[in-house]
């Protein structure tokens, strides 16, 4: 995995202020970056110096017409097709609007299924094979 830079504190503060006050929103870290989820699906987050939002086709097309917006690629040549990086110079109110659209779009997707939890019961120790007898 490439070495990624931490998001600057002012971007983290910008991200926190852009999140809607909605009980469905779950804020947590992903790869060390702050992100927000709804129904187990990520709808916005930070990556290095970028703030990203998950949008439907029409929303992506509109946002990508904005100077500085780009399809999010965490690694060159590896785009995350539904995610767009917001332009760095975007205002707080514009970011809030895009985050709200991302929440609305992602909330309409099927909830992400949680992986089955591994059993905490201890397995019986493996039996040792019987020693071989020499003939």
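^ structure tokens above, recovered residues below v
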């Amino acid at each position: 995995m490439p070495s990624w830079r931490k998001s600057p504190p002012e971007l983290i503060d910008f991200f926190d202020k852009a999140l809607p006050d909605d009980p469905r929103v779950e804020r947590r870290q992903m790869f060390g970056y702050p992100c927000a989820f709804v129904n187990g699906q990520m709808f916005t987050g930070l990556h290095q110096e970028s703030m990203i939002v998950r949008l439907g086709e029409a929303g992506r097309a509109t946002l990508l017409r904005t100077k500085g917006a780009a399809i999010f690629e965490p690694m060159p040549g590896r785009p995350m097709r539904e995610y767009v990086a917001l332009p760095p110079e975007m205002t707080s109110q514009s970011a809030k609007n895009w985050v709200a659209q991302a929440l609305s779009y992602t909330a309409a997707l099927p909830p992400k299924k949680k992986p089955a939890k591994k059993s905490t019961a201890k397995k019986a120790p493996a039996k040792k094979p019987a020693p071989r007898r020499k003939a």
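The chain has a mean pLDDT of 88.
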